[in-house]
Design a protein that fits this description.
This is DUF2919 domain-containing protein. With about 170 residues, this protein is mostly helical. The chain is about 70% helix and about 0% strand. The protein has one domain.
């Protein structure tokens, strides 16, 4: 990015929008997509922590157990992105630095993979209904659009934390 473009890129952000490495804090859209991709694991955690009815929460969100397990499979990519985020710091391994700009691609791939798994679940095992599948498709489509329309997310992916000189 040229120096004349840099001030225009960041002019709409305040000091609170930056982290301790002078990188723009991660976009809320990034976290929304990540939560959707990881929803199977979130449901699993909610059901494990519910001491009264461990299976009830899971069955309420995933009436078919196979859909839950398929959601866990598709969430593996999201767990990998969480690993990349957690290791994103100045002294990060080289592979983290190389993979960081591709996190949006990984998340979009996870969304598409999740939808394909739901399509397979519908056509092969009849695990869900047409309205559920259409709703899921609409959500996936909207989240993919969010990934590509967020200027903040684009900036996030172009930055990587660097060690700042002490003042």
């Amino acid at each position: 990015m040229s120096t004349s473009q840099a001030p225009k890129t960041y002019q709409e952000y305040s000091i609170e929008d930056f982290d301790k490495f002078d990188c723009l804090k991660l976009s809320k859209r990034f976290y929304i997509v990540l939560l959707f991709v990881l929803r199977g694991y979130l449901v699993w955690l909610m059901s494990v922590t519910n001491m009264k009815d461990r299976v009830g929460t899971m069955q309420w969100i995933y009436p078919e157990t196979n859909l839950f397990f398929l959601s866990l499979i598709s969430g593996v990519i999201g767990l990998f992105v969480v690993l990349i985020i957690s290791l994103r710091r100045p002294d990060a391994p080289k592979w983290i630095q190389q993979l960081w700009p591709y996190c949006r691609t990984l998340l979009v791939g996870a969304l598409i993979f999740d939808f394909i798994i739901n399509l397979i679940g519908f056509f092969y095992w009849q695990l869900s209904s047409i309205p559920w599948l259409v709703c899921q498709g609409a959500i996936v489509f909207a989240l993919i659009i969010l990934c590509f329309t967020s200027k903040r997310l684009q900036i996030n992916l172009s930055e990587f934390p660097q060690t700042l000189p002490e003042k």
